[in-house]
């Protein structure tokens, strides 16, 4: 979780920033756990936290629900929707799953290198 902060210009209050973000994602109680002790959904939320820790304007998510069951996939999508609305972040999701795509505000189809 701290690796993205290593490359950040803002290194102040690292521990506090991490705990605040984990709390936002419902993971604060798992802050001291090793990754191998986390479920797939919990690991995905940690990955989202890593993506958010340096406060980017755009989040790029490549198949963010691909390895998750339906319920956990819905939770991850809900987190992205909340980030988009509450933090005014652009979230770009790449997916082959039409059900996931239909939950997004805009869809761009790319087939054989052509945009439709």
Which helices and strands occur, and which strands form pairs?
Layout: H1 3-6, H2 14-24, H3 40-52, E1 58-62, H4 70-86, E2 90-94, H5 98-102, E3 110-111, E4 114-115
Parallel strand pairs: 1-2
Antiparallel strand pairs: 3-4
Pfam families: ABC_tran
InterPro entries: ABC_transporter-like_ATP-bd, P-loop_NTPase
Protein name: Putative ABC transport system ATP-binding protein
Structure described in brief:
This is Putative ABC transport system ATP-binding protein. The protein has 116 residues and is α+β, with helices and mostly antiparallel strands.
The stretches of 5 or more residues where confidence is low (pLDDT under 50) are none
Q: Classify the beta-strand content into a percent band.
A: 5-15%
Strand order of the largest sheet: 1-2
* Structural class estimated from helices and strands: alpha+beta
CATH fold group: Rossmann fold
> What are the secondary-structure elements, in order, as H or E?
HHHEHEHEE
Tell me the name of the CATH homologous superfamily. Answer: P-loop containing nucleotide triphosphate hydrolases
The overall number of domains is: 1
The gyration radius over C-alpha positions equals: 15 Å
The number of distinct β-strands equals: 4
Largest sheet: 2 strands, parallel
What CATH architecture would you give? 3-Layer(aba) Sandwich
Residue-averaged pLDDT, rounded?
Answer: 87
* Discrete helix count: 5
CATH class: Alpha Beta
Overall geometry comes to: globular
| Helical content band | 40-55%
Terminal Cα span = 37 Å
Keywords: ATP-binding, Nucleotide-binding
Protein name: Putative ABC transport system ATP-binding protein
Pfam family, one: ABC_tran
InterPro entries: ABC_transporter-like_ATP-bd (IPR003439), P-loop_NTPase (IPR027417)
